[in-house]
Design a protein that fits this description.
Layout: E1 7-10, H1 14-25, E2 30-33, H2 45-48, E3 52-55, H3 57-64, H4 69-75, E4 77-79, E5 81-85, E6 91-95, E7 104-108, H5 109-121, E8 126-129, E9 133-138, E10 143-147, E11 153-157, E12 160-163, H6 170-175, E13 182-197, E14 211-217, E15 220-226, E16 232-239, H7 246-249, H8 254-264, H9 275-281, E17 285-293, E18 301-303, H10 306-309, H11 318-336, H12 340-372, H13 376-391, H14 399-405, H15 410-428
Parallel strand pairs: 1-2, 1-12, 2-8, 5-14, 12-18
Antiparallel strand pairs: 3-7, 4-7, 5-6, 9-10, 10-11, 13-16, 13-17, 14-15, 15-16
Helix pairs in contact: 1-5, 1-11, 3-11, 11-12, 12-15, 14-15
Bound molecules: flavin-adenine dinucleotide.
Flavin-adenine dinucleotide is lined by residues 10-16, 33-36, 53-54, 133-134, 164-166, 170, 192, 235, 305-307, 313, 316-320, 322.
Subcellular location: Mitochondrion
InterPro entries: FAD-bd, FAD/NAD-bd_sf, Kynurenine_monooxygenase
Enzyme class: oxidoreductase
Length: 429
């Protein structure tokens, strides 16, 4: 292989399109193979644009390094804290940082993905192949077979392969056929469904625009993130099983659904005029944590993003971690120059402990958000955190702040968070 041959990137999602910017900035030729049509021309994809994600420090840092900071911040809505909605309609606001100055950002997934593809394509060394589904990878000969909508297949080859084809990665599936390949997937008993709060009559947001809204109800939880058009995307996190699980509710009639929402989430009912219709018609999806090892085989393929470490969304970090992967990968590629095998080895060694740590924290945050954010002990602990933070601003940051507003490696944030917990417990005694 010569250095003029392209790097083959599999998947043009959030990670693949940002990685392509980085690779092209290093002067590499990049070919990206994506199974979907180009969503920039696809009117159906516009529906997906109302799905939003929380972007925080790590993602912003990775986007800034490719000159995208200003553009991304112009698309974002700051969320300065959580607004909790209790069943009796009471609202409680918890700022995300002690000074109230640090915030996370609500951003449209579709828009961000489209703009990253456009940004990468400004470099003439980049070529996207849409509606090219990866169906097979020959790891030994570094060849990828892609299938076109006609059913025709073709084989592509480059100087190396980087797979960013998401949680259900075909590349990882191929690697799993090798001996001594470690893999685990764990589904939560909770699934999710998205709903939509439309804008008010004058295009205004009907609930506070600068909050992440949470309706914590034990095993049931809803959250809502603002969109720029005045709407909110609501995500219901409910169990699959049980009387108020998706398996029952997805088949319930209008009256039963309305009664359920009026009982559990009364203030949401007037905000979603098409609630029962949407609930029945919008898909219910599952939530999974995926771990695997190694991420690179024979030094000729490497997994990045959800393909190597899919996590549950309760810390709002999956995309941020995937973007941080790109940042770390770029640094190591520059250090190691032409040796892909060495780049992949160093990358996976540096990243694995950190992505395992955020996977753990994301699962822990699930229980914190749904069970604790409304409870007195939790609110009190948050108060202690703020007090300690104000008293020792250089020395005390909460785990949430370390993960969302700093670039401290995730594993160090996990360890520091454990120490914080001990200090807070001492004050509780
Ligand atoms: C409900 C929910 C809420 C979330 N909220 C947040 C949040 O607030 N903040 C956050 O940081 N993260 C969040 N995440 C996580 C985030 O969505 C993912 O971590 C992120 O999308 C990972 O990017 P990726 O590029 O690795 O994978 P993906 O975005 O899944 O992209 C994979 C790409 O590969 C393509 N592909 C797949 N198979 C093939 C194939 N065979 N051939 C060719 N192409 C293929 C796909 O079409 C897609 O374009 C959330 C996730 C969920 C489920």
């Amino acid at each position: 292989m010569t250095s003029n041959e392209p790097v083959i990137v599999l998947g043009a999602g959030l990670c693949g399109s940002l990685l392509t910017c980085y690779l092209a900035n290093q002067g590499l030729h990049v070919e990206v193979y994506e199974r979907r049509a180009d969503m920039r021309n696809d009117t159906n994809a516009a529906v997906g644009r109302s799905i939003n994600l929380a972007l925080s420090a790590r993602g912003i840092e990775a986007l800034s390094k490719v000159g995208f900071r200003e553009e991304v911040m112009s698309m974002a809505i700051p969320m300065k804290g959580r607004t909790m909605h209790s069943t009796d309609g009471k609202l409680t606001f918890q700022p995300y940082s002690k000074d109230g100055e640090s915030y996370i950002n609500s951003i449209s997934r579709g828009d961000l993905n489209c703009r990253l593809m456009t940004l990468s394509e400004k470099n003439p060394n980049v070529k996207y192949f849409f509606e090219h589904k990866v169906v097979n990878i020959d790891l030994k000969n570094e060849q990828v077979t892609v299938q076109l909508p006609s059913g025709e297949t073709k084989v592509v080859k480059g100087q190396t392969i980087i797979a960013t084809d998401g949680a259900y990665s075909v590349a990882r599936g191929t690697m799993m056929h090798m001996s001594r390949y470690n893999y685990s997937q764990e589904y939560l008993p909770t699934g999710y469904k998205e709903l939509h709060i439309p804008p008010g009559p004058n295009g205004e947001h009907l609930i506070d625009k600068n909050s992440l809204h949470i309706w914590p109800r034990g095993h049931l939880m809803m959250i809502a993130l603002p969109n720029q058009d005045g709407s909110f995307t609501v995500t219901c996190f409910f169990p699959f099983d049980g009387a108020d699980g998706f398996d029952v509710l997805d088949r319930a009639d209008d009256a039963t659904l309305t009664q359920f929402f009026e009982e559990k989430f009364p203030d949401v009912v007037p905000l979603i005029p098409s609630l029962t219709h949407d609930f029945r018609n919008n898909p219910t999806s599952s939530l999974v944590t995926i771990k695997c090892w190694p991420w690179s085989v024979n030094g000729n393929i490497c997994l990045l993003g959800d393909a190597s470490h899919a996590i549950v969304p309760f810390f709002g970090q999956g995309m941020n971690a995937a973007f941080e992967d790109c940042l770390v990968f770029d640094r190591i590629k520059r250090e190691e120059k032409g040796d892909w095998g060495q780049v992949f080895k160093k990358f996976q060694e540096e990243r694995k402990r950190n992505t395992d740590a955020i996977a753990q924290m994301a699962e822990e945050n699930h229980y914190e958000m749904r069970d604790k954010v409304g409870d007195h002990t939790f609110l009190w602990r948050k108060k202690v955190e703020r007090l300690l933070g104000n008293k020792f601003p250089e020395r005390f940051l909460s785990r949430y702040e370390l993960v969302s507003f700093s670039l401290m490696p995730y594993k160090d944030a996990l360890d520091r968070g454990a120490i914080n917990g001990e200090i807070e417990n001492t004050h509780n005694d």
